[in-house]
Specification:
By secondary structure, the protein is of the alpha+beta class. Helix content is 33%, strand content 23%. The protein is built from 19 helices and 32 strands. Strands 14, 15, 16, 18, 19, 20 and 21 form a 7-stranded antiparallel beta sheet that branches. Strands 22, 24, 25, 27, 30 and 32 form a 6-stranded antiparallel beta sheet that branches. Strand 6 (385-388) and strand 7 (391-394) form a beta hairpin. The longest helix is centred in the first third of the chain and has 18 residues, at 155-172. It is globular, with a radius of gyration of 27 Å.
Length: 733
């Protein structure tokens, strides 16, 4: 564990939210959280069980989160009360642990049944031996005890969790590998990571062997092969599996584990995330690039786990795009998910326009996201600045003081995002030299940066003062499902329309599902030019980052007040708006009538279905025109698709490129060049359709009487300095 510390500056936004989170955790009664563990081993508890999930078959999971949250607050804030409660709770758990090592909030019945059944146990995605996710529940206690040891300084916690691990190994050793995989069908939390962590701490090979037995091959093997099979899977069941794989890579060095974790991270963050950095609808992954708007989008647990996975990704790659994602999700989802008055937590964060946030009651709403929500505020410090191999990476512009293990101490002063600058002041020098790298955010156009996305600020020295400019502008993020929906951001901050709370039902509830049929308030379609938001959105209060839209920008002549989403609570809101774009709508209508076949370059499923092959190309996404692409930048680059032609008519190949592209593009059919086109880059921020006619005679010669015709079309460039992004590829008649 890195001994670097980051202390948030008092009375600033994240520090206040952290204090609210600490107060919430300290209000919880450890005896009530421990009660299920007493019942599970036949002993009388010292307090009554909490309600909701803590009175159901998943009970005990909150105790694990409680351990983790207290440990984090001890480490980050040095809270004495958190330390006292942590040590007390660990001591109580130690006293009731069975001799065989088992301890948990549920009886060991489902585990005993599974271990002794010779593979004849009942299992489905959320049930094992007729019990609701027993490993998930117990995993939280494993993870919480490890945190209590690493961050809370409690040595007894390690001894308890080692005995728990030995109990689990003794049981699973009775199972074949095939039976283990059957068991892993049921959600089991991060059990793989638990054993990988224990191996990292103890170097006991038994724990490494156990960790690798907990790899769920149904999910991990496709990711090793870089295949996206996530659609339809329960999202937060899968993320902890990749946290386990990430940790296994770190303790074994096996490259396939890194491949799987990186592929999953990129797939989720770049193809399956909403504007706030969250993912999932109805707790499940949809198709790639889907941004279906609903009441039950963006389960907060998912983002908690994705941020932890991002920390592993950064440790391996040190690139600013990972920190960009972290910033998006931290400000716009995690910070937004806690009620600043009560500390209550959200389960889902709805992206349905005109809906509202729903928070859990203190006594009864012990949801999964209540548990991770306990931990989120103590994690605010973790990614601000990281000391790695002689370089400090400044990732987030959060006011704080950072101290490295060898004594470097510097302060970050800023009122970001309410101000557009920050200052780093070196307060004292450490024993060993350090360089400072400052993230150049992706939302600053033209920022000076290296290949890793960071600006090198040079070597640190005592008293050094570094100024950072953070110019923010309004920008539009279009939903990546081509729906026409979009969001408004100021720099990285998602702005939401405050719709008001008229006729809004109670939003602090016991059961998160009670609001699923609650109506949303209608939000007007925006008809203004999305490429020029500054023409119809005005900043009306810089101190609070409040903006106002012109009434003329909306179909119903409505003016909206926009505020940072993290500050929207107990009111209806819209983080997404619908848009009307007459030019794009007319273009889509034209192609709808005449398209024979279409490929979306850079979108996995579309390309796979057309048997794509690529050499040297890059993939990416252009937010301003809402298109993925394949990019040609040098003469050796090429890609091809097997596409359908209409054998009864003359056809046209239509290549859609970006208006700023330059260079010559070559198109071939079955290896024979049929056209070259030169682009001058003078069309600006737009779609440009290049049409290449194919005569009826040529089609008929190729078809030779076949009812259908599929041919390989190759796109390449003879240029060594080309920059061509193919956004769409279609055959029309």
């Amino acid at each position: 564990m890195n001994a670097q510390t980051t202390v948030l500056t008092p009375d600033t936004m994240f520090a206040q939210s952290q204090q609210t989170g600490l107060d919430y955790v300290l209000r919880l009664d450890p005896d009530r959280l421990l009660a299920p563990c007493y019942f599970a081993v036949g002993k009388l508890p010292k307090g009554s069980t909490y309600g909701g999930w803590e009175s159901q078959q998943i009970q005990g999971h909150s105790l694990g989160h409680y351990f983790s949250a207290l440990s984090g607050f001890v480490y980050q804030t040095k809270s004495k009360e958190a330390k006292e409660k942590l040590d007390y709770t660990v001591t109580c758990l130690k006293e009731i642990q069975r001799k065989d090592g088992y301890v948990g909030g549920i009886p060991s019945t489902p585990f005993d049944t599974t271990f002794s059944s010779n593979g004849n146990f009942a299992v489905d995605r959320f049930g094992l031996s007729n019990w609701w996710v027993p490993w998930y529940s117990v995993h939280k206690i494993y993870a919480g005890l490890i945190d209590a040891y690493l961050f809370g300084g409690n040595k007894d916690a390690l001894e308890i969790v080692k005995k728990m691990a030995d109990w689990a190994i003794a049981g699973t050793d009775k199972m074949t590998d095939e039976q283990m995989q059957k068991m892993l069908t049921c959600e089991h939390g991060g059990m793989c990571k638990v054993f990988a962590d224990l191996y990292g701490i103890t170097k006991d090979e038994r724990y490494l062997k156990a960790a690798e037995r907990w790899i769920h091959h149904e999910i991990i093997d496709p990711a090793i092969k870089q295949r996206d099979n996530l659609q339809g899977y329960h999202a937060n069941t899968q993320i902890p599996k990749f946290l386990g794989i990430a940790r296994l890579y770190e303790v074994t060095g096996k490259k396939e584990y890194r491949t799987a974790a990186e592929f999953f991270f990129n797939t989720v963050t770049k193809k399956r995330s909403y504007v706030i950095g969250g993912n999932s609808i109805g707790e499940h992954f949809g198709p790639e690039y889907s941004e279906k708007l609903g009441r039950d989008t963006c389960e907060t647990c998912n983002t908690y786990n994705m941020l932890e996975l991002a920390e592993h990704m950064f440790d391996w790659n040190r690139t600013a795009d990972i920190a960009d994602y972290y910033e998006t999700a931290l400000y716009n989802h995690i910070l937004a998910s806690q009620d600043p008055q009560t500390g209550a937590k959200t389960y889902f964060v709805s992206m349905l326009p005109g809906f509202y946030k729903v928070y859990g009651s203190f006594e009864n709403a012990f949801w999964c996201c209540t548990g991770t929500g306990m931990e989120n505020p103590e994690r605010y410090n973790r990614f601000v600045a990281l000391d790695k191999d002689g370089t400090i990476y400044l990732n987030l512009f959060i006011p704080s003081t950072v101290t490295t293990e060898d004594g470097w101490k510097f302060k970050i002063d800023t009122n970001f995002p309410y101000s557009q600058n920050a200052t780093v002041t070196v307060l004292s020098a450490g024993k060993n030299p350090r360089n400072l790298k400052i993230r150049a955010p992706s939302w600053i156009e033209g920022a000076e940066k290296g290949a890793d996305g960071y600006r090198d600020a040079g070597q640190l020295s005592a008293g050094k003062n570094i100024q950072i400019d953070l110019p923010m502008e309004l920008n539009i993020r279009r939903a990546r499902d081509r729906s026409g929906n979009f969001s408004v951001l100021y720099g990285p901050i998602v702005l939401a329309a405050d719709i008001g709370n008229k006729n809004m039902p109670r939003d602090i509830v016991d059961n998160q599902l009670v609001y699923m049929n609650s109506p949303a308030q209608k939000v007007s379609t925006i008809t203004a030019d999305l490429n020029a938001p500054q023409n119809w959105i005005t900043k009306t209060d810089a101190a609070t980052l409040t903006f106002t839209t012109k009434a003329s920008a909306a179909e119903n002549n409505v003016s909206y007040t926009l505020k940072p989403f993290y500050g929207i609570h107990h009111t209806r809101y819209a983080t997404y708006f619908a848009s009307n774009n007459a030019v794009e709508d007319a273009r889509a209508a034209k192609f709808e009538k005449i398209t024979v076949d279409m490929v979306e370059p850079g979108r996995q499923q579309s390309e796979i279905e057309h048997r794509y092959k690529a050499e040297g190309t890059a993939m990416g996404y252009l937010s301003s025109i809402d298109r993925n692409y394949r990019q040609l930048t040098q003469a050796s680059d090429s890609f091809s698709y097997r596409v359908k032609f209409d054998p009864k008519k003359a056809n046209t190949i239509v290549l859609t490129v970006y208006g700023k592209d330059k260079g010559t593009i070559s198109i071939s059919i079955d290896g024979k060049e049929i056209a070259q086109k030169t682009l001058t880059g003078e069309k600006g921020d737009s779609l440009v359709d290049i049409e290449i006619p194919i005569s009826l005679q040529a089609i008929q010669e190729a078809a030779k009487g076949k009812a259908s015709l599929r041919q390989v079309v190759t796109i390449t460039t003879p240029d060594t300095t080309a920059d061509i992004k193919v956004l769409e590829f279609r055959i029309t008649h």
